[in-house]
Design a protein that fits this description.
TIM Barrel; alpha/beta; binds alpha-D-glucopyranose; 2 domains; 15 strands; Immunoglobulin-like; 7-stranded parallel β-sheet
Length: 428
């Protein structure tokens, strides 16, 4: 069920932690796509130590980053559980030198730090033969001949085994939702390999609510979730449902030592601003090393993002979707009382920046992180007829924020719009 905390949270941290951090391969997909054999992939279990894993340190860092919730992989498509499950031996507790229940330490530490606790759970299990007992709905067996991990590869279907598999997933999810205190959010993945009917989604949703009526569910439930999860691609117009944009910090979800393709802190702040402008959350991924520590580059980006949020906090949490991009060529948010616009200025202005289509007159404009007051004036418009004209803000001499400068535009009253020629704004 959608909860207010989620839409107000704005920033979550995604954690892809698992045996795939041992080598230099992608999580689960590497064996599925034949980059590495299944046996070699699983050998990574021997190198998963979690020797420096300290969930409290993670929590401290995530708080500094400004996050309000976290989502960690409890089990990826490879089927390796990060928790102690009595329904399978395939877990880091039983199969790796780590020998610890990562989910347990994680959930405790996050909750203690006041963060909402989310768990990623892959519906797909490419290690479990029972998962391979039925074909994707509508697929022809001959199309699945090479699909050795996902389908029965040309053989007959076994609906009973499929029932067992669904029961197995339900059992593990019950463990997750009853052994680790309140789980605030479940993040499913891999729904696309089977249909809503095959997953029994309506019943599944009810089942989850019977375990926690308040749990927030992501959309990867074949239409039965609470919010959308655009992945690695910003929805240009936003989405008319609650949503969360998930993104890697470099090019990988899990840790890969060879991946040096890091985004800059400015890019990350910019992406975050896009989410805020369009009314969504950002779920920023980190991939811890097998020992549980984070690459310093990941840590640095999180801290930079946190310092930007700290300097501009009132433009972030207690706000909603901003102006549309035709009104202001940048991002923005609007305060909860609708009397303030926060403009995100990404580049160095050469002279004036302008805002169009806002009828309510301006009272004062300041640079949020310094308090410096800026000069402004209007051109055009017939305010007594509700025709706003153009607001020009003199912005070439202001002190810029190194990551993104926020201008606080205080209005005389609640914001109203006139977009001219009967056009509709997203904010109305
Ligand atoms: C994709 C991939 C998976 C990753 C997820 C994160 O769905 O299957 O590897 O965990 O994206 O959004």
């Amino acid at each position: 069920m959608m909860q207010e905390w989620f839409t107000k949270a704005k920033l979550g941290i995604f954690i892809h932690y698992g045996i795939y951090a041992v080598g230099d391969v992608s999580e689960s997909w590497s064996f599925h796509n034949g980059v590495i054999s299944y046996e070699d992939y699983m050998k990574q279990c021997e190198g998963f130590t979690a020797s420096k894993f300290d969930a409290r340190k993670w929590a401290e860092l995530f708080k500094k980053a400004g996050a309000k919730y976290v989502v960690m992989t409890s089990k990826h498509h490879d089927g390796v559980a990060l928790f102690d499950t009595k329904y399978s031996d395939l877990s880091v507790v039983k199969k790796t030198p780590a020998g610890r229940d990562i989910v347990s330490e994680y959930t405790q530490a996050m909750r203690e730090a006041g963060l909402k606790v989310g768990l990623y759970f892959s519906l797909i299990d490419w290690s479990d033969p029972r998962y391979r007992s039925v074909y994707p709905e509508g697929a022809k067996p001959e199309d699945c001949l090479n699909d050795i991990y996902g389908s029965p590869a040309g053989g007959p279907e076994n609906p009973e085994l499929w029932e067992e598999f669904l029961q197995f997933n339900n059992n593990q999810i019950r463990e997750l939702m009853t052994n680790y205190g309140t789980i605030d959010l479940l993040w499913f993945d891999g729904d696309w390999e089977r249909s809503a009917k095959q997953w029994r989604m309506p019943e599944f949703r009810e089942y989850l609510h019977s375990l926690n009526p308040n749990v927030v569910l992501n959309s990867r439930m074949q239409g039965y979730g609470d919010y959308e999860t655009p992945e690695l691609n910003m929805p240009i117009y936003g989405i008319d449902k609650p949503w969360e944009f998930c993104t890697t910090i470099n090019s990988s979800w899990g840790y890969r030592p060879s991946d040096n393709n890091y985004k800059t802190s400015r890019q990350i702040v910019r992406m975050f601003c896009d989410c805020l402008t369009l009314g969504g959350n950002m779920l920023l991924d980190v991939g811890p090393k097998e020992d549980g520590t984070l690459d310093p580059r990941q840590e640095k980006i999180l801290l930079d993002l946190g310092s930007w949020i700290h300097d501009n906090e009132e433009a972030v949490y207690e706000t909603g979707r901003g102006l549309n991009y035709h009104q202001f060529l940048g991002g923005s948010t609007i305060s909860a009382d609708k009397k303030t616009i926060y403009l995100f200025v990404y580049d160095k202005p050469l002279e004036y920046i302008c805002v169009k289509g806002v009828k309510t007159r301006v009272k004062r404009i300041t640079v949020l992180h310094t308090g410096e007051e800026l000069k402004w004036h209007y051109t055009g418009g017939l305010p007594w007829f509700g025709i706003p004209g153009t607001l020009w803000i003199k912005a070439d001499e202001m002190q810029l924020h190194p990551l993104t400068t926020v201008l606080k535009v205080e209005l005389e009253d609640e914001i109203t719009y006139n977009l001219g020629h009967g056009e509709v704004t997203h904010n109305e």
